[in-house]
Amino acid sequence: MITEETIPLLRPMIMKHLSIMAFTLAAVVSAAQEPNFDSASFKVANPANRPAPDKRTSGGPGTTDPSHFYFANADMGELIMRAYGVSRDQVSGPCWIIEVKRCAGEWVNFELTATMPPDTTEERFDAMLRTLLATRFRLAIHHQTRNVPGYELAVIEGNVSPEHPVAPPGDEAWMARTHPPGVSLMVGLSGDGERALFRNQSMAEFVTHLEPMAGLALGMDREKVGKPKITDKTGLTGKYSFNFGFSCPCLATVGYQFPGGLSNDPVGVPLPNIFDALRDQLGLKLQRTANVPEDVIVVDHVERAPIP
Fold it and tell me: Does 300 reside within a domain?
């Protein structure tokens, strides 16, 4: 029974539900004004049965099958990333929407099949996907700006370079594992370090992998606060193959637990910090610049299952 005494206690709960209803209504109204797929269907997928990366999506704008789109075993975070053109660390929401280790057991993945006119552009496709998520999952979001550290990757003049790299300490033990010739990137993690093998990589490609590595080394949890933004200022235009390893005690403090390390990770071999590793192994340096503003998609509400 609601009495005058219980009304103050219920007010926060009522306001929360009214807020969610307002977000949901706004999303539905907005969706009604957006373009729609000709048809679209969702099935719940088992996260353990995820196909290889090159077989997860097919069709859509710019492909040989522009009228059909298929996305296998996608978590809600990936659908939001595609719809809004952001990276994984730019999505903030309930634990179940993104496959991260701290949320194991809560993941919900989907299989999406959609059809559209063959002349659909990328921009219109993204709008269609935003409409679909708003109507089928009652997705409501808002944008938030956060500042992340900015760095420039530059060359240090000397004998060491990506073309003539120096292997990290203990590299022979790590390289004892078979590395298939066709693999361009392999990473080994332990509680106190990270090692990576790069083959035929440009500096621009290296930077995309260096950003999350630097974030870990700096103690940044990319699932909560993003990762540094690194600009390639090396002026190097070639493709390079090298090994790279650095210490990172923070691996165990930001949700990446690997008790005992991986079987191929050398034990008791000290690695340098990431700044010294870049200098001594690759002849490169990270120079701090101004913080970089980054757009974050904050999920205010989303259903765990598609609405029929």
Answer: no
